[in-house]
Each structure stands twice: as structure tokens, then as C-alpha cells.
Write a structure and sequence with these properties.
This protein has two helices and four strands. By secondary structure, the chain is an alpha+beta fold. It starts with 16 loop residues before the first strand and ends with a strand.
């Protein structure tokens, strides 16, 4: 049996994998909330979001798991570095 398809198939499809990142922030809880707002605004699928903010410590951190394609990882880090309170974005 032969199947004829008049529409070409996309061959550039890539699966979205759960990728964990650690994001170092300043500004206390407000800085962490800005990261959360940026993730929401950019439309990323966040599966885990853990914030660590301590009194008297100048930096906080967010550990999050985001569904990304392989080619989106660099863009993800670049977009988050544009947030004023973000100091570093590191894949885990």
C-alpha cells in the first residue's frame, strides 16, 4: 500500500525537554517576583519554581525547570539577563 501526501512534512520539529536553570537575583523578594513575571510574559512553560531569599543576604536565587527546545536555551538565558535584577543564569 502506498500513501500519497500532498503536503510536505516538517522536518525541523524538536521536542521540548525539561531543563533546569538556576537564576541569581538581587532585590530580595521583588527581584524574584520580577523573574517570575518575565517567565510568564515570555510564555515559557514552567514546571518547577523554587525561590531562596534570605534576610541579610544580598543575593537570592530561583531554581526553575522550564520546557525548552535545544535551540531555545541560549535565547532563554539572554531574555532573563535583560531583567534588571538578574545577575546570572546557569543551566543545571
Amino acid at each position: 500500500m502506498t500513501v500519497l501526501d500532498h503536503f510536505p512534512r516538517r522536518t525541523d520539529w524538536q521536542p521540548r525537554l525539561h531543563r533546569r536553570h538556576e537564576i541569581v537575583t538581587t532585590g530580595g523578594m521583588a527581584g524574584v517576583l520580577r523573574v517570575g513575571a518575565a517567565l510568564t510574559t515570555c510564555g515559557y512553560q514552567v514546571h518547577e519554581f523554587v525561590a531562596d531569599v534570605q534576610d541579610g543576604v544580598p543575593y537570592g536565587s530561583v531554581t526553575c525547570t522550564v520546557a525548552l527546545r535545544a535551540d531555545e536555551s541560549a535565547l532563554f538565558a539572554e531574555r532573563l539577563r535583560e531583567v534588571p535584577t538578574v545577575i546570572a543564569v546557569e543551566p543545571r
